[in-house]
Design a protein that fits this description.
With about 100 residues, this protein is mainly β. It is built from no helices and seven strands.
Amino acid sequence: MAPTFIPIKADIPSQSFTVVLNEISYGLTAKWNDRARFWTLDIADENDVTLISNIALKIGVDLLEPFNLGVGSIYAYNLSSTGVEMSISNVGTDAVLVYLEPDDE
């Protein structure tokens, strides 16, 4: 199965959305940390209980791997091949957040 793009958008420093990961709904909140110059991600369950807080979105790293949720993987990818990390302005275009189901990892 193809990766699922997580709908994070450029130039919106704080945004929340619901996604389905391995048939379970989760609430995601992406925040731009202006001082440190990187995005973070919070993940909450369907009852709005925070499961993971302030994951730094780094290119090429399985963001869920340290937490053993068993729902698959979330990766940040740079599509422009420039090697730069996600920024406030390139997220959602040059740099994207994708979800891979457990069978696709």
